[in-house]
Amino acid sequence: MSKFLSSRFAGMQPYVPGEQPQGRQYIKLNTNESPFPPAPGVLSALSREEIARLNLYPDPDAREAGAAIAAYYGLQGDEVLLTNGSDEALAFCFQAYCDADTPAVYADITYGFYKVFARIYCVPSKVIPLTPRLEIDPEAYRDAGGTVFLANPNAPTGLALPLEQVEWILKHNRENIVVVDEAYVDFGGKSALPLLKKHDNLIIVQTMSKARNLAGARLGYALSNPALIADLNNMRFSFNPYNVNRLSLLAGAAAIRDEAYFRQCTAAIMENRAYTAEELRRRGFAVLESKANFLFAKPDRLSGEAYYAALKGKGVLVRHFAQPRIADYVRVSIGTREQMQALLGATDEIWREL
Ligand SMILES: *Cc1c(COP(=O)(O)O)cnc(C)c1O
């Protein structure tokens, strides 16, 4: 750290993304990317002609892609905000709805960025522990007294909170915003979308990074009522009005229009998830009931960290979090059937070598 860095960032711990190794070819099951390419329409949308227009700024209102996303969810254009990855949508929520008197409220075990955002925007956090079974207890969120950030399904557990319980939290926090981060909702969870019309304090955040195979395009969005979307747009225009680049807008519009391909990819992931969960359980792992494109699993013969390291030695990358309560687990992204078989094969070898 330089001597010039503002003292308010002393000791700040930034978000640590999963490894993106550039040398050795790993079987990459560590960052919850899709193993499948973007929809065919995305490839044809990114034509040479469009590349030749990169001298021009993108539409700051993202009208075309915004309309495609709104139509997909049965919303109006002013109920959608497009962002540079959903992380940016979450950042705008922190900027708009958290302050010294309105803490960010989130679980002890959840998406790591909430804590980082609270730190960088200098707002207090109210951390609510998950239950011993690593579940969200809605009762613990009654009148939480701040802006609630709920990942549903949660990360890295993969556990989903039933929609009735999401609504219960909305009803018991009427004076505060509840942000439901649905990065993984398309892998078997239930979206809070039907609750938008009934609750004026709900913001849903989704991403094209996971179920739409576009992690590299950096495209996310917030869905809410026009008043809250206008707040978030104020943040956006005060920060980076051209926040989504031309090519990503085209890619996103093409991706959301190909429903069949989306269904095919997410169905394959859910099938491979069921297969992998069963195979891991047969090998003695405790595996949480995932509604996401990853499994959270605890080996019975090695620590989480030792298993992670042994897999890495065999060319398979998974994610380990050295964090109290979950250090015994690893998070395994769901890839193709062949990738999952490679994980299981490597696991069998590790067990034989013990
Ligand atoms: C992956 C992820 C995101 C953010 O993804 P972007 O690539 O920034 O859209 C947000 N929330 C959760 C819980 C995630 O796992």
What does this structure look like?
The structure is a single chain. This protein has 354 residues and is of the alpha/beta class. 36% of the residues lie in helices and 13% in strands. It has helices spanning 40-45, 48-51, 63-73, 85-97, 113-120, 163-171, 226-237, 246-257, 259-282, 304-313, 337-353; strands at 27-28, 80-83, 104-107, 125-128, 147-151, 178-181, 202-207, 220-223, 286-287, 294-298, 316-317, 330-333. The strands form three sheets. The protein has a seven-stranded mixed sheet with strand order 2-8-7-6-5-3-4, sandwiched between helices. A three-stranded antiparallel sheet has the order 9-10-12. Helix 4 (85-97) crosses helix 5 (113-120). The radius of gyration is 20 Å and the shape is globular. The model has no long low-confidence stretch (mean pLDDT 97). Bound molecules: pyridoxal-5'-phosphate. Pyridoxal-5'-phosphate (PLP) binds at residues 32, 85-87, 111, 151, 155, 181, 183, 207, 209, 215, 220.
- Individual helix count: 11
Strand order of the largest sheet: 2-8-7-6-5-3-4
State the helical fraction.
Answer: 25-40%
User: Ions, cofactors, ligands: which are bound?
Assistant: pyridoxal-5'-phosphate
Helix and strand run: EHHHEHEHEEHEEEHHHEEHEEH
Helix vs. strand class: alpha/beta
- Overall form: globular
Quaternary form: single chain
In terms of DSSP E residues, the strand content is 5-15%
Report mean pLDDT, rounded to a whole number: 97
Query: Any low-confidence stretches, pLDDT <50, length ≥5?
Result: none
Q: What is the number of E strands?
A: 12
Quick one: biggest sheet? 7 strands, mixed
CA-CA gap between termini: 42 Å
Output the radius of gyration.
20 Å
